[in-house]
Amino acid sequence: MPQRRVYDHAMKGNAEAIQKFAVTVALAESGIALMRQNLRRRNGQMSDVEIDRELQAWLERREDAIPGDVAGPVRIRSIDA
Question: What pTM did the predictor assign?
Fold first, then answer.
């Protein structure tokens, strides 16, 4: 099979995954834009640089993360009876 046909066949199989990824990226971008608006509304006196700093801090916080599902070192605990 010519290389172009192999590529086309592979891409057809991934079309759904590509579409889902595009939706995921769009939703993430919308969420970031909404949080930027919230920060601006709550802190109208902040400069753009300060808003960007707060937005970055928000992106790095994982307040709703499952324990152990965070950045940094992971401690493995054994469960011994």
Answer: 0.61
